[in-house]
């Protein structure tokens, strides 16, 4: 699925279109050490040394969904080494909806980490900044720096737990599973029908430009000497 900004660029034939067509689901992982394959057979040493948060006094572990007025950078501390898993999604993408219950269960599996989610169509500047062309897209941040991108096409609780363990060395709680409450929220697992206004505007703009170019071409043809004579003959 594509967020609104990427869909508009795809309709206009921009560079993001070719990239989105090649990889319709998830972007490649970030460069550097985080680019290795997510799996249990990858390197044993953690790639990201996360500072685990103090969970004393926390009764309920859940993810936080940012609204349109909230900035992701306000929730990431650049001066700390704590880790946050951030999901870029759109409510009308079926891949985002199928991932939702699995991502909802992650905070219980990793209580010492933080989990955030944001609607990529409402945060287009962040999508551009972090190369989030297709959704769902999951980034692991240390402080305010993106360290690794989840690149598995099989997006389940188990593959997500493997990804976090391989990157951080933090083991998940073994008794955590996807429950009925995880299907209900906080991340929606039911598709939301919505009109992509930016994509609609792009299509109308292109149609208007084609019509304008056609009219201008006909006008110029009549202004060229000899063209009107050819039509009369």
Q: How many helices?
A: 8
Instruction: Tell me the CATH superfamily of the domain at 64-183.
Output: Glutaredoxin
Class from secondary-structure proportions: alpha/beta
Q: Overall pLDDT, averaged?
A: 76
Which second-level CATH architecture of the domain at 64-183 applies?
3-Layer(aba) Sandwich
Q: What percent of residues adopt helix (DSSP H or I)?
A: 25-40%
Number of DSSP strand runs: 5
Strand content: 5-15%
CATH class of the domain at 64-183: Alpha Beta
**CATH fold category name of the domain at 64-183:** Glutaredoxin
Radius of gyration: 23 Å
* Low-confidence runs of at least 5 consecutive residues: 15-29, 31-37, 39-43
Spatial ordering of strands, largest sheet: 1-3-2-4-5
SSE order, as H and E? HHEEHEHEEHHHH
Shape: elongated
CA(first)-CA(last) distance: 55 Å
The largest β sheet comes out as:
5 strands, mixed
Organism: Melanocharis versteri (Fan-tailed berrypecker)
Protein name: TXD15 protein
Keywords: Membrane, Transmembrane, Transmembrane helix
Domain Thioredoxin: 26-169
């Amino acid at each position: 699925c594509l967020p609104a900004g990427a869909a508009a660029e795809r309709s206009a034939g921009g560079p993001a279109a070719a990239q989105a067509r090649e990889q319709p689901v998830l972007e490649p992982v970030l460069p550097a050490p985080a680019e290795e394959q997510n799996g249990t057979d990858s390197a044993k040493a953690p790639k990201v040394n996360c500072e685990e948060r103090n969970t004393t006094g926390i009764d309920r572990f859940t993810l936080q969904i940012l609204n349109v007025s909230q900035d992701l950078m306000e929730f990431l501390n650049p001066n700390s080494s704590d880790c946050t898993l951030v999901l870029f999604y759109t409510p009308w993408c079926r891949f985002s909806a199928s991932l939702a219950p699995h991502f909802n269960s992650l905070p219980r599996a990793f209580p010492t980490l933080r989990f955030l989610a944001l609607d990529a169509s409402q945060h287009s500047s962040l999508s551009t900044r972090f190369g989030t062309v297709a959704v769902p897209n999951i980034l692991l941040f240390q402080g305010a720096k993106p360290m690794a991108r989840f690149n598995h096409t099989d997006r389940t609780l188990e593959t997500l737990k493997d990804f976090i363990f391989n990157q951080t060395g933090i083991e998940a709680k073994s008794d955590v599973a996807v429950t009925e409450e995880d299907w209900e929220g906080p991340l929606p697992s039911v598709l939301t029908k919505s009109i992509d206004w930016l994509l609609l505007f792009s299509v109308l703009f292109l149609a208007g430009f084609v019509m304008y170019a056609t009219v201008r071409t006909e006008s110029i043809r009549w202004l060229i000497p000899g063209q009107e004579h050819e039509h009369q003959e």
